[in-house]
Write a structure and sequence with these properties.
globular; 6-stranded mixed β-sheet; about 650 residues; homodimer; alpha/beta; about 25% strand; 7-stranded mixed β-sheet
Chain lengths: ~650, ~650
């Protein structure tokens, strides 16, 4: 992909972007504010810029007269970058520019991290759970008429030094014909024991040599979305990955409504059936995409929260919802995939990740295992912000976990114009410090429909640093802008006017929205603090943060620190592990080391019911501020805010 | 039951019989010959006896005139013994009496032997496979909200010192409601590992205290008949036992025709389904008879020959029938009973006895285990004569086994008037040494329909000792009796004339019948000899014989020695273990010691394909005589025959 250089003036900021990128996104990425509230459809006509050198594609609209066009004016939101550019942003005063440079920092998201097979091997963590062995057996005679199974076992011992071999019924049922198809040339699939000295299970036999084809399925069973990955066990590569809405959504959006539905007659069976149907749909798609023979799939690992796991296994989750919140079990035996209704061979065993408690599920354990945080000396904080927020803190010596009742603010819930991170969601934002005009960037560059979680954090952080809201999330009543208004006693900031939106309504951020955001981030931050305090540590002791879940890939790390969702830490020490649940499931397919370790990990993972932990409430109340009552926990922000206030007090000093 | 004493004259033989016994059976038991060919319905009118003292019930027929009746004549076959008696048998000469006393020995069958629970305990062999533990768990609170499964496991550890506990999915699915029914008072059923150090499986949870109720099912899956036993695991008693025809009979009488049927489309599934249906029928009957709650059945063990086992497990047995006779497997993993279609709880694991080869199946292994022959120093010969004949020889140090293609003579097959041991089968026999008139005793005391296996042996042995047939089974052509005749070149002995039978045909024993019998007994005896020779031993080295199978309970031991089916051995050293397969299955339900030992036993059990063992053919040919070419192997019989011949030569010497 061709890349182009852009110089923004008067900011004197440079950036390199991919061919075809819209100019307004390039500006946002460079930390350059351009007024823009319509999301990129040219409706508001505010994002006028001057192309001083180079050429753009498009950007000429009826909002620009011929004289403007002649001068090089274009609408940034409709201008595609097709070559190197020098772009000038028309600004009212030099002061603005100074403020702007202070204000806007490039969006910084977490680095993606995932362990691969080579790394596993290098680290000595590679213990393949399933392996194939090819054999050319001598054909039986009257002098040597061992049973087919005994013949296979004998030669696995003789040729591959395999011991303690057992078979399951499906192998006995098919072995005789399989052996006789190609003169006793056969491939046996061995499922290794997790603990040495236990039995190795011959789970499958196939005619001829199939040792070059061995696959696994990893599944993240999310409340909303289910993700599946088809893993090549020989290379460690993901050959296909698909996601789809959990079919259970029709029976309740969230965990609680699913639990209630499961309590109705036939409800549990129905929810079990539809989640299996969703997984089967994904398996089918992956098989088609990767063009493999389903018979070559040797294993499946699944991870989900405790309720999803119980529904998957047809275990009624009703007591999860009722105090004292007791799950039926936190670990699950290996189960025949066909017994669960999975569309896989009868040789496939389904492994399901163990949970810690009713609200810290197998998805989190999978994240802990997949991230490897349980193997390192470094004090790590793992956060998975999904429908709920779960946190794990610890290292190779100890692990503490908790579920935080953050509420759904980060997924767009409890926010007046909140929405999921889909087309039309405001996902990035900047504000003119003088006019308080917004620069909205939406997913898909279309007119705004609402605000997604990562956008919400950026908006709140920007407003807070700019003094538009105070540390309790209240709008500064003194600012002169029509965008801040009071309706029915509720203050709000209008991000986009009715005519600029897709929904034919003013899209605004309200004080109750900010309140919900603060409660959400407060719950997570104070949860983390509480876990740390229980073992005598502080936020500052944290070496590394792992973010899991879809939210983690989009969140602007610095902005998340501004609102106090994340502690202040070098962003390089924050890693995004993607879908931790899926990653852990995949890792379990690749190496038995994970299954071996997970028993010990779940045993030493202490679960805190925060509501039962005395210090939690104080920590929570202290965290209900932006970023926190204790500003010493956010020294960099504290310094920035002090500089900003100084700047505002003495606008005369342009040195800042 | 009241018993009565009878003195038979002139033989001067005494016997005690139960009230109501027919006089003719009492005579047979006492070793007293009375001519009788109609089986006991008074038709032939030959069994006239004189009641010299005491009274009988019945016995007066139109065949007796009033003068006879006055003198005390009765028909023995219709006379019921209701008090002490002195009975005179009208005999032509004193010589006859002398011969008679020489000839007839009381029928001697094997002693029944079975190990019970106390004996197991005394011998240190008691390792219960399933045990119940009662717990009163503390109810969960917010401070103590372990999962239900973890709670159960923790307290099993704390209160009963149970370790390495695992659960299966059905327990997870039901535990939450079970615990909450009676305030966390619960009984857990534990399935013990066979090898110490392995996992103990919590297979079931029940509300309240059910520790006094724990049952098992043992099943012998026979080709013809299936037997089930309901075992009380606390007392070791059989609470109910039923047998029923294997439903597969409609699809083929014998193993070979079943294998052929299984090869047809849908055939395997059909045969699997009907055998499961038969077992389920038996389970239902046993549950009803014993009045137990099916939920209290904790385990099931099944044993059958290799083909029956493969059909039971839906494993196509087709290669069993084809050279080189390879079974799919000789051992089978534990299987969920519900997966097989068994009407038992989802917590029940079905154990299936391992086999040795295609023709030495799990039924024989079960017999070896049940009999305990693998634990003793004594050299033991185990014989199971059923549809086929299997033999095992050995002791605690070694075991050799073989299947003998005996043919179905002992089950009435290959015998012109052969039949199964049912009503109307001639099961006992004696012969007048002068007139060669028969004394037939039929099952049910009805007119004869045919000859069953045990009857066949008695008839052949009697005729041989009497010189009616020679050692090749050929009739003495010089005897003057209308009962020996030649029809279409085939010699035969008429046991009952047409008008005396149920089938309106003369019932005869032919030379081809005798030939088949000799081949059958020859195959078994030479099989045993061959196994012994392979380890450098002789028949005389055998300490003990165990007879298994229905046939074993009826066979007249001394007569079996006369024809050379059994070696000459003190009958007290022959034990009848009944249905060895069922016994072994029951033993496996009672103690894991059997399952622990069986692996080692099957490993050291050497299977001989007799057809591939060079010495077998010579041994077989040598055994195709009555009792054998080498009379020194039958010294007692040899002496008796010599005395008899001397007697015949010099009838003048009445000392014999």
């Amino acid at each position: 992909m061709k890349r182009h250089h852009i110089l923004f003036l008067p900011h004197n900021k440079k950036i390199t972007v991919e061919h075809g990128e819209k100019l307004i996104r390039a500006a946002m990425e460079a930390g350059v504010h351009i007024n823009a509230s319509c999301g990129g459809e040219g409706v508001c006509g505010k994002c006028r810029v001057i192309i001083e050198d180079g050429k753009v594609e498009g950007g000429v609209t009826e909002k620009l007269d011929s004289e403007d066009i002649e001068k090089g004016y274009r609408q940034a939101c409709l201008s595609g970058v097709v070559g190197d550019l020098v772009v000038r942003i028309p600004i009212d005063s030099e002061v603005d520019a100074g403020l702007l440079n202070l204000q806007k920092t490039p969006r910084r998201t977490a680095h993606i991290w995932e362990m691969n097979l080579e790394e596993l091997k290098d680290k000595g963590l590679f213990m393949p759970p399933v392996e194939k062995k090819y054999l050319e057996l001598p054909e039986p005679t009257l002098q040597d008429n061992l049973s087919d199974v005994t013949r296979l076992i004998s030669f696995l011992k003789a040729q591959y030094n395999e011991h303690r071999l057992v078979v399951q019924l499906p192998v006995i049922q098919k072995i005789s014909d399989i052996l006789r198809k190609e003169h006793f040339k056969v491939t046996a699939t061995l499922a290794r024991p997790v603990h040495s000295g236990r039995k190795t299970n011959i789970i499958h036999v196939q005619t001829g040599d199939t040792t070059d084809r061995n696959y696994a399925i990893a599944v993240d069973v999310g409340t909303t979305t289910i993700y599946g990955q088809l893993v090549d066990l020989i290379t460690g590569d993901a050959l296909a990955q698909f996601g789809d809405y959990n079919g259970q959504i029709s029976y309740g959006e969230d965990v609680i409504s699913r639990i209630i539905y499961a309590g109705k007659p036939g409800g549990l069976e129905k929810l079990h059936d539809v989640v299996i149907a969703t997984i089967n749909k994904l398996i089918k798609k992956m098989i088609k995409k990767a063009r493999i023979d389903p018979d070559e799939i040797s294993t499946i690992t699944m991870a989900g929260n405790t309720t999803m796991t119980q529904l998957l296994l047809k275990v009624n989750p009703k007591y999860i919802r009722l105090s004292p919140y007791v799950p039926a079990s936190t670990f699950y035996p290996p189960i025949k995939a066909v017994d669960l209704g999975l569309a896989l061979g009868d040789h496939v065993t389904a492994l399901v990740y163990p949970a810690i408690s009713s609200y810290v599920g197998g998805d989190i354990v999978a994240g802990v295992m997949g991230s490897g945080m349980y193997r390192t000396e470094k004090l790590t904080l793992l956060m998975d912000i999904g429908t709920n927020a779960e946190i794990v803190i610890g290292n190779k010596d100890w692990l503490a976990c908790a579920s935080c009742s953050a509420g759904p603010a980060f997924e767009g819930g409890g926010v007046k114009f909140g929405m999921r991170a889909g087309k039309g969601a405001i996902e990035d934002f900047s504000m003119d410090p003088i006019t308080f005009e917004p620069m909205n960037i939406t997913i898909g560059n279309v007119r705004p429909k609402g605000i997604c979680g990562s956008g919400l954090i950026i908006i709140a952080a920007t407003m807070f640093e700019m003094g538009v809201i105070d540390n309790r999330g209240k709008f500064n009543r003194d600012l002169k802008t029509p965008r801040i208004r009071e309706i029915d006693g509720v203050y709000e900031y209008v991000l986009a006017w009715k005519h600029e939106t897709e929904i034919d309504k003013d899209i605004a951020l309200t004080e109750p929205d900010l309140d919900n955001l603060i409660r959400a981030k407060g719950a997570i931050y104070s949860g983390s603090i509480t876990l740390l305090e229980e073992v005598g540590l502080k936020m500052q002791d944290i070496d590394r943060i792992y973010l899991a879940g879809g939210f983690g890939s989009y969140v602007d790390l610095e902005k998340a620190m501004v609102i106090g969702l994340l502690p202040e830490i070098d962003p390089d020490r924050i890693r995004f592990i993607g879908n931790g649940s899926l990653m852990g499931a995949k890792m379990s397919c690749l190496t038995n080391r994970i299954r071996k370790d997970v028993v010990e990990v779940t045993r030493r993972m202490t679960n805190f019911e925060l509501s039962e932990t005395p210090s939690f409430m104080n920590n929570y109340v202290a965290a209900l501020f932006l970023p926190h009552t204790d500003m010493d926990q956010f020294p960099k922000l504290k310094a920035r805010l002090e500089r900003r206030r100084a700047l505002q007090r003495g606008l005369a000093n342009p040195a800042f």
